[in-house]
Fold GDP-Man:Man(3)GlcNAc(2)-PP-Dol alpha-1,2-mannosyltransferase.
Amino acid sequence: MNLSFLFLWLSIPVVLAYFFGLYLLGSLGQVVGYYLRRASRVRKELLLARVKSEQRAYAATHSKGALTNGDDDWEEVEGYAAGTAANGAKGREDWKGIMGFFHPFCNAGGGGERVLWAAIRANQKRWPDAVCVVYTGDHDVDKAAILKRVANRFNIHLHPPTVHFLYLSTRRYVLSSTWPHFTLLGQSLGSLILAYDAFSLLVPDIFIDTMGYAFALALSTFLFPAVPTSAYVHYPTISTDMLASLSSDGQGVNAGAGVGWKGFAKRHYWSLFARLYCLVGSTIDVVMTNSTWTQSHIRSLWAPRRARRLRSIKASETDIDVVFPPVAVEELTDGIDVSPESESKRGPTILYIAQFRPEKNHTLIIEAFAKLVAKHNAFPSFPNTPPKLVLVGSVRDSDDATRVYNLRLLAHERKIKEKIEFVCDASWPQILDWLQRASVGVNGMWNEHFGIGVVEYQAAGLISVVNDSGGPKLDIVVDIDGEPTGFHASTVEEYASAFAQALSLSPAETSAMRLRARKSALRFTDRIFAEKWIGNMERLVQLQERRARKS
């Protein structure tokens, strides 16, 4: 009893010191945040004055005024042009705050950037007087060039006066090349430097990360507790699947990397980083993910701590929301006919659209195709035409070029080089042409977080054969009206069998599956993305107003 009593008394000062240290740390963060906010006050006033000036100039030269947009049909979407909330209630169309979007590579032109610009367009429709600021490291392009590329690349037309760009000078700290060792931790710490750079330029009213820098959001909460934060997560920085892949029988690019003493160290390093990732994720107010697979992993990592921190919000199904990324579905459905008549344009072609990166697993697809042609020279629907594999993808650097060369060698070794066509750096018209001519679309990546290319297959009417994992399995190639829209596979044998099944369907079965696939793709349109996005932004605006009143 005496020892227990002594231990109790000794532990009291330790506990008090711990909580006092946390209090001091929090106070220090708020002091630094106060000075950052004060230092950026003049820039904020200049920005708002510039917005007003550009609004007047724009209104004078455009008959529709502030809400002019290249997509006039968007004016009919309930809740955006009219300023009403997604549930029909009167919205706060007079909210005039600043939304900061943390997207250091905003001019990259990929799927992540499409999410960014579609999100800003939805915000502009919903809150026409709010200002959207993008923190970017793309110093080589100005605002006009960025918005022109957005319009040409994605057919998204933004309202120029209320979107502005602040240029970061420390983007190099989030490049993988800067951190050849301990890359995950290095890039995450680098994002703290980059976020501090952003806040030294301007402290927004709402801070949104659309690239996956959770540590940047944690820093925002540490410095500015009154500023609501939101994350749109394309894929978790670390996941339980990544840890499992280190085993000798694992899958993916890190398969077998957990063997030996280096593997032992790597496994523990990743486990410790996962704990840190859980901690920073718990600080974020509103979390969205791009797929059910991503949601499942983020929920397993972040939800327990978030439930303890946000006591008013239970770790429920709606706390971490799935918001599917917008895909150019309408463009494909309008431009590509799917009917019995269009079948005459299609051949026994298997199409794989993917960058030539290791994780895309082109080798698996070539091996499966080799097994297919070894057993089948032709199919009943295409009696005079042998099957063909077309690999379409971009070549970013010399490593990609070497990878393409090795894939060509593999095709030569399997004696199928005449039946495989490589299309590198294809233009959009070329891709559209192949989507009209192919019958089957394939995806070979293990645990792909979503799969925009698979949605494009479906919109074009292709029968998809996808990896039995990740977003393609859980969200995209699913049954519609109780009937399949494609096939799932994991091994070489399963892929070869799925190719044969897809090409052996009767004309009636083929037509029906193509139409179901197209119907499935309609779940991923720009309009549906905007509705879900605005629903989550409403929560942030309400949170910002409530915290502003308290402060």
In short: The two ends are 49 Å apart (CA to CA). The first strand starts at residue 98 and ends at 102.
